[in-house]
Every structure is written in C-alpha cells, then in structure tokens.
C-alpha cells in the first residue's frame, strides 16, 4: 500500500517521506520479508493495516447503501496518516468530505514520527477532529512504558471537543513473530497495562485498532477490554465482518487504503464530537 502511495503521491496531494528512528534508539530486529514487501525496511516505518489483505475499496465505494447493509445508519468519513504521507493536503481532504484524522505519533519506546507535529497541527487548523496513534511493539518494552512514551510524545488528550482519545495499534508484528513472542495471557496483560497507564495519564481509555484474525490468534477471547475500550476494526471489504470477541459494535472501521487509509466513524458527527469531548 505505501509503495503504491509513494508512486501516486502527487495525485493524492501528499509528499512521501521515509521515517527514521530517533537518534540513540535501541535497534529493532530487521523487518520480516512480508513487512519488506509492504515497504517497511527500517524501524519506525510500521503503519496501520500494513498487512491487511483483500480487495481494497476505491474512494467513494463505501456509500450509504453499503453502510446500511453493514448496520450503520450514520457515518463520518476520516483518514489516518503516518510519516509516509509527509505533508498532507488537509484542505483537499476536507473538501473530499473527511472530518476526522488519526496521526501516527510513536512506535515502541524509541521512535517518534518526524511528521507528527505538522500533521497533527495541520489537521486541527483545518478543522478536523483528530487524534494520535501508537504502533505497539509488545516484545520491546512493557505496556506501561509504551503508554508513557506515547503520552509524552503526542498521545495526550484534552477535552476541547477536537481531540480524540489516543489509539493503540495492535496488529501483525513487522519485525518478527506474529504475536511478539507472547502467549495470549501475556498479551492480555500487556494490553491491560497500556490501557491502565494511558487512562491514569489522560483520564480516557484508548481506542484499540486491530483486526479480528490477529486478535483471535494473539489475544484470544478475553472480553475485558470491550467494556470500556472503543474498537477500531480493520477490514478491507464492503462490511466490517465478525468482530473480536466481546465487542458487539465497532467505533471506527478502516475499510480501504486507496489512495490513503480510509475510515468511517460509526455514528453522527455529534457522536464523534461527544467521543472527543469525553
């Protein structure tokens, strides 16, 4: 997806920039072959949905009839970006009907996106309701440490009605074993530590971004998170499909990566503002 985006950056009004790890950071294991095929060649380049499969929808294909078939009565369109997108044409995205955005801030406990500042500020200035996300590396450090790194480097929250709670990106490991070398019980504990620390620091539970296949394999069927954590489901199709155990509905759905990651909020603009306000 990101390789294709680089080739079409001019069309999308984006400038692709290769991410780099912060100076002095600990080395991350080399990307796997599948990660390399997705354009991830060094630490920090992981992005939401990097290993999603299926036939991505084109922009505009998720129309209201499709939304109704998926059980959604009102939706708000949005995007997510990382350092791969560089300078984003926020005015162009607004004109295309997008009203919210998530921006990658951090990865593990050593990477900060060099594009985060201008992407986060630019989306806010344009009028977007925006939030930040953290790409989790559970084999690198504790959930508590990564929550602190995230909050300290852009992942905070404020009740201004324009800032969404931070999102925890839990998905395929681009640098090694699928489940980061953890048992399901160990992964549950890691996520719980992150959620607890993020909530203690910000007063809000984070959103969890994941896909059902990875979650079932690596987290299992523990239902504790569904009670307080909003779900951001990744599935590139005309329907969100089966959700991870415990969640009866999703809050966000990433349904395509063409020509940039496409998302919908499961509700009206007023409900999105309510989520931002807390």
From TrEMBL:
Residues 21-41 are annotated as: Disordered. It comes from the Bacteria. It catalyses: Hydrolysis of (1->4)-beta-linkages between N-acetylmuramic acid and N-acetyl-D-glucosamine residues in a peptidoglycan and between N-acetyl-D-glucosamine residues in chitodextrins. Keywords: Antimicrobial, Bacteriolytic enzyme, Disulfide bond, Glycosidase, Hydrolase, Secreted, Signal. GO terms for biological process: carbohydrate catabolic process; cell wall macromolecule catabolic process; defense response to bacterium; killing of cells of another organism; peptidoglycan catabolic process. It is found in: Secreted. Its main location: secreted. Residues 21-38 have a biased composition (Low complexity). GO terms for molecular function: lysozyme activity. Its EC number is 3.2.1.17. InterPro entries: GH, Glyco_hydro_25, Glyco_hydro_fam25_subgr. SUPFAM superfamilies: (Trans)glycosidases. Residues 1-23 form the signal peptide. One of its GO terms (cellular component) is extracellular region. Belongs to the glycosyl hydrolase 25 family. This enzyme has both lysozyme (acetylmuramidase) and diacetylmuramidase activities. This is lysozyme. It comes from Janibacter melonis.
């Amino acid at each position: 997806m990101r390789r294709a985006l680089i080739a079409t950056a001019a069309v999308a009004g984006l400038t692709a920039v290769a991410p780099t790890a912060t100076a002095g950071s600990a080395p991350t294991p080399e990307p796997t072959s599948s990660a390399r095929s997705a354009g991830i060649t060094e630490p920090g380049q992981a992005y939401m949905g990097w290993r999603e499969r299926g036939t991505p929808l084109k922009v505009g294909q998720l129309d209201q009839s499709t939304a109704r078939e998926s059980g959604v009565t009102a939706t708000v369109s949005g995007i997510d970006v990382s350092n791969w997108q560089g300078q984003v044409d926020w005015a162009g995205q607004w004109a295309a009907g997008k009203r919210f955005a998530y921006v990658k801030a951090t990865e593990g406990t050593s990477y900060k996106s060099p594009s985060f500042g201008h992407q986060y500020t630019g989306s806010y200035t344009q009028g977007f309701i925006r939030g930040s996300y953290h790409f989790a590396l559970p084999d690198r450090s504790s959930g508590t440490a990564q929550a602190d790194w995230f909050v300290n480097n852009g992942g905070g929250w404020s009740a201004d009605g324009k800032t969404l709670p931070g999102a925890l990106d839990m998905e395929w490991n681009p640098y090694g074993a699928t489940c980061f070398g953890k048992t399901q019980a160990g992964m549950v504990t890691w996520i719980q530590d992150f959620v607890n620390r993020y909530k203690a620091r910000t007063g809000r539970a984070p959103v969890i971004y994941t896909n059902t296949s990875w979650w079932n394999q690596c987290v299992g069927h523990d239902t504790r998170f569904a009670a307080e954590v909003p779900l951001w489901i990744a599935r590139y199709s005309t329907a969100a499909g089966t959700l991870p155990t415990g969640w009866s509905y999703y809050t966000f759905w990433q349904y395509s990566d063409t020509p940039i990651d496409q998302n919908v909020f499961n509700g009206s603009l007023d409900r999105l503002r309510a989520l931002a306000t807390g």
